[in-house]
TrEMBL record, chain A:
SUPFAM superfamilies associated with the record: Thioredoxin-like
Protein known as: Thioredoxin domain-containing protein
A cellular component term, taken from the record's GO annotations: mitochondrion
Gene3D superfamilies: Glutaredoxin
Pfam families linked: Thioredoxin
Coiled-coil spans in chain: none
Organism: Mesorhabditis spiculigera
InterPro entries: Thioredoxin, Thioredoxin-like_sf, Thioredoxin_CS, Thioredoxin_domain
Single annotated GO MF: protein-disulfide reductase activity
GO BP field: cell redox homeostasis
Swiss-Prot/TrEMBL keywords: Disulfide bond, Electron transport, Redox-active center, Transport
UniProt entry tagged with the keyword Disulfide bond: yes
Residue intervals of the Thioredoxin domain: 12-151
Automatic annotation (TrEMBL), chain B:
Higher taxonomy: Eukaryota, Metazoa, Ecdysozoa, Nematoda, Chromadorea
Identification of the protein by name: thioredoxin-disulfide reductase (NADPH)
GO biological process terms on file: cell redox homeostasis; cellular response to oxidative stress; glutathione metabolic process
Pyridine nucleotide-disulphide oxidoreductase dimerisation domain ranges (all copies): 524-637
Required co-factors: FAD
Organism: Mesorhabditis spiculigera
SUPFAM superfamilies in the cross-refs: FAD/NAD(P)-binding domain, FAD/NAD-linked reductases, dimerisation (C-terminal) domain, Nucleotide-binding domain, Thioredoxin-like
UniProt record similarity statement: Belongs to the class-I pyridine nucleotide-disulfide oxidoreductase family.
Enzyme Commission (EC) number: 1.8.1.9
Catalytic activities: [thioredoxin]-dithiol + NADP(+) = [thioredoxin]-disulfide + NADPH + H(+)
Length: 157, 654
């Protein structure tokens, strides 16, 4: 978990135009988007989920849309897709969150969602599946997918 | 259907009795339609014992074909199979079962010929023959034993599953999936106890994790090194400098693939509705297993039937100091993260030779220590040729010895194998002993494999084991009638993945559907993936001589050079490729043994094996026209007869 947090900070720092959002610090008055004042905003944008309980709390009960990346260490396409998804999610600045589920460590979760191939990415809104894809997709398709999950109206795309 | 007590002689036509009689006819008609009778025999597939009044018996109980009998048995709570010669004993059997409150015991009448089929199918002489819930029990004695120890009662209790498979390897998974396909409720327990070096792995068993799959991939990795040398002679340009091999790259790629397979099997079980329990199962009752997983969660499941497919693990020699503590086995070699370095393979099994082969192929220094002969059980002429090839390949053979002690000079770390000092004694022709010792980075023990399932023989179930610890069975049925066994754990059968898979599927269909199907364990083709591969099917020359007599055997053979290798004169394989067909003279030279030592022997042998299965004669091989240029075509033009005491065959020009 710490390595992940470290990586996220590093990634965020590497993105030149986007200010580093200190979501944990409520004292920042100049947070741009009021959505961040709700309690989910205290979590990082990208986080690991390993148990059914964590999934229920941080994905199903999240008021912000969440995409769940089911991945595995031994899966080549996962290793390529994962970082690109994370970057894109960071770019949405809190409009959508990302949960990462390692299917070898969280086999029960993978079984529950009948994940058969990896990577499988499922988008949730208010506890319901709104979009899903399997395998590698290109950047444009990732944008479309995130638009769908974050409910961005067609005109804005 | 109710069986009214003791009214066999009654012919009163009370309505109740009439309706039973007519139901009985309806059953018989339906049953006849079901079996699609090409057999013109009429009538009763079975009648419930109670309705078998003398009148019904006269009308209905003609003998039925065995296929119909087996299907009925598979569906009945209990069945007694008989033929006319033992009809007089039927009552005793039926009464015994009825006395145990087994409703709807069915009697199945077959003819005397079918009796032989039943004996072949069950490997039991009892007649009449009793089945309980589709499992063959035997005769009165066996049933009485089950009554006495209360196991008959627990057999008839409600169980959660139709089948629990213990062992998620090649055999277990195949059987579980087939049973689920037939609509049965199945659970599969799989748990890997760590190796002596603490290695574990996921679902899929030995073949997927520490056997066939990684072995073949590493064998391929090693062979590619040789191909690079060939490539240069064919004009490919390589950058200057030595071409080296990185162990970790190969190891990671292979292990990622295996992890993908572990996952795929999990998904498959889920999709086919087999419940997967990642726990070590032990019998806690005649129909109950208990398993505790890594997190300490205990699962207790009951089932009508069980299948033990727990396989084998590498043997070590506890009498040799340092053997278990410092040596690795095939459980470890495929996943170690650092190169094994200079390696000693102890053992003459195909595991030892295959591992030695690919380790040498990727550029390591390798020795093989052999107590006596190579590849016991395989054709010895070919086995010695393999040894000669491996020596020419650069592997050092230490023959006629075993280690006496293994000392650790430097422990292994996370990134390096450490150093071991191996001591052994050699004895020359005069009996003089010499002590030797040599340093190695890794010692791999491959002296055989043994069962490690002591838990199947407990107070609650007493499964008969052979001296080897393997399970003794009658066509996969253990000494406990509702417990079956397949795969490597089964005594007397080839230890091969495809054998286990076939056995699993055939068994599921036989016990759940009553199919008249047995696994054919003979003429199973196989291949040893040493650097020069050895494919074979049927008998070795020694076994053929033993079975048919030296004078009745004729061997046709040939030595050859694969065309792909002629450009590179350094290819040592050019002096070692060989093949032979072993034929029986007085059976029109029927081919009983097929052997080939060549690259890609596995791919070649598979096809020819069908010929042996169909009883091909030498002249059939001669009628067949070869594909040119291949190595396999050798078998279509074998004319040289092997003679005793002649010189080793040399390759001739094309």
């Amino acid at each position: 978990m710490f390595a992940r947090a470290a990586r996220l900070v590093h990634q965020a720092a590497a993105l030149p135009k986007r200010p580093l959002l200190d979501l944990a610090n409520k004292q920042h008055g100049h947070l741009r988007n009021s959505r961040f004042l709700c309690y989910e905003a205290q979590r990082p944008l990208v986080f690991d989920v390993a148990t059914t309980e964590e999934f229920e709390e941080h994905v199903l009960r999240s008021t912000i849309p969440v995409i769940v990346d089911f991945h595995a260490d031994w899966c080549g396409p996962c290793k390529m897709l994962g970082p690109r998804l994370e970057q894109k999610v960071q770019g949405r600045e809190g409009a959508v969150l990302m949960a990462k589920v390692n299917i070898d460590e969280a086999g029960d979760l993978a079984d529950e969602f009948r994940v058969s191939a990896v990577p499988t990415v499922i988008g949730f809104q208010n506890g319901e599946v709104v979009a899903e894809f399997q395998g590698m997709i290109d950047d444009d398709q990732i944008d479309e997918f995130l638009d769908q999950v974050a409910d961005v109206p067609a005109a804005e795309q | 259907m109710e069986c009214p007590a003791g009214d066999k002689a009654s012919r009163t036509s009370s309505p109740g009795r009439f309706s039973r009689f007519f139901t009985s006819i309806r059953e018989r008609v339906v049953a006849r339609v079901d079996t699609g009778a090409s057999n013109r025999r009429t009538g009763a597939v079975a009648s419930t014992a109670g309705a078998m009044a003398p009148r019904a018996a006269r009308l209905g109980s003609s003998a039925v074909p065995i296929s119909a009998a087996l299907t009925t048995i598979a569906k009945s709570p209990a069945a007694v199979v008989y033929s006319e010669s033992v009809q007089h004993r039927l009552e005793e059997y039926v009464n015994l079962l009825r006395g145990q409150e087994i409703e709807n015991t069915v009697v199945v009448h077959v003819d005397e010929d079918a009796r032989k089929d039943f004996q072949k199918l069950t490997l039991r002489d009892n007649w009449p023959l009793v089945y309980v819930k589709g499992d063959c029990v035997g005769g009165l004695e066996e049933v009485n034993k089950l009554v006495a120890n209360g196991q008959l009662k627990s057999w008839f209790q409600e169980h959660q599953y139709d089948l629990i498979v213990i062992g998620g390897g090649s055999g277990g998974l195949a059987a579980a999936k087939e049973a689920a396909r037939l609509g049965k409720k199945v659970a599969c327990f799989d748990y890997v106890k760590p190796s002596t070096q603490d290695t574990t792995w996921g679902l899929g068993g030995t073949c997927v994790n520490v056997g066939c799959i990684p072995k073949k991939l590493m064998h391929q990795g090693a062979l590619l090194g040789g191909s690079i040398k060939d490539a240069k002679k064919f004009g490919w340009k390589f950058p200057e400098g030595e071409i080296t091999h990185n162990w970790k790259t190969m190891r990671d790629a292979i292990n990622d693939h295996i992890a993908g397979l572990n996952w795929a099997y999990r998904v498959q079980l889920r999709e086919k509705n087999v419940e997967y329990v990642n726990s070590y199962a032990t019998f806690v009752g005649p129909h109950e297993v208990s398993g505790k997983n890594k997190k300490g969660v205990v699962t207790n499941y009951t089932a009508t039937r069980f299948l033990v497919a727990t396989g084998l693990r590498p043997k070590f020699d506890a009498t040799i100091p340092g053997c278990k503590e410092y040596c690795i086995s095939s459980d470890d070699i495929f996943s170690i993260k650092y190169s094994p370095g200079k390696t000693l393979c102890v053992g003459a099994s195909y595991i030892s030779l295959e591992c030695a082969g690919f380790l040498k192929g990727i550029g390591l220094e390798v020795s093989v220590m052999v107590r006596s002969i190579l590849l016991r059980g395989f054709d010895q002429q070919i086995s010695e040729k393999i040894g000669k090839h491996m020596e020419a390949y650069g592997i050092n053979f230490i023959r006629g010895c075993i280690p006496t002690k293994i000392e650790q000079l430097e422990p292994k770390t996370k990134t390096a194998p450490g150093r071991l000092l191996v001591h052994w004694v050699s004895i020359d022709a005069e009996g003089k002993k010499t002590e030797h010792s040599e340093e190695f980075n890794t010692v791999l023990y491959a002296i055989g494999r043994e069962p490690q399932n002591v838990d199947v023989k407990t107070d609650v179930v007493d499964i008969e084991l052979a001296k080897s610890g393997k399970i003794v069975a009658r066509h996969e049925q253990t000494s406990v009638p509702w417990i079956y066994a397949i795969g490597d754990i089964l005594e007397g059968k080839p230890e091969l993945t495809p054998v286990a898979i076939q056995a699993g599927r055939v068994l599921a269909r036989r016990i759940f559907q009553g199919n008249y199907e047995l696994t054919e364990y003979d003429k199973v083709p196989t291949t040893v993936f040493t650097p020069l591969e050895y494919g074979c099917c049927g008998l070795s020359e020694e076994d053929a001589i033993k079975k048919y007599g030296q004078d009745n055997i004729i061997v046709y053979h040939g030595a050859f050079k694969p065309l792909e290798y002629v450009i590179n004169e350094d290819r040592i394989e050019n002096n070692h490729c060989y093949c032979k067909l072993i034929c029986v003279r007085n059976q029109e030279e029927r081919v009983v043994g097929y052997h080939i030592l060549t690259p890609t022997a596995g791919e070649i042998t598979q096809g020819f094996a069908i010929g042996l299965k169909l009883g091909a004669k030498k002249r059939d091989f001669d009628r067949l026209i070869g594909i040119h240029p291949t190595v396999a075509e050798q078998f279509t033009t074998l004319t040289l007869e092997k003679k005793e005491g002649e010189e080793e065959l040399k390759v001739e020009g094309c």
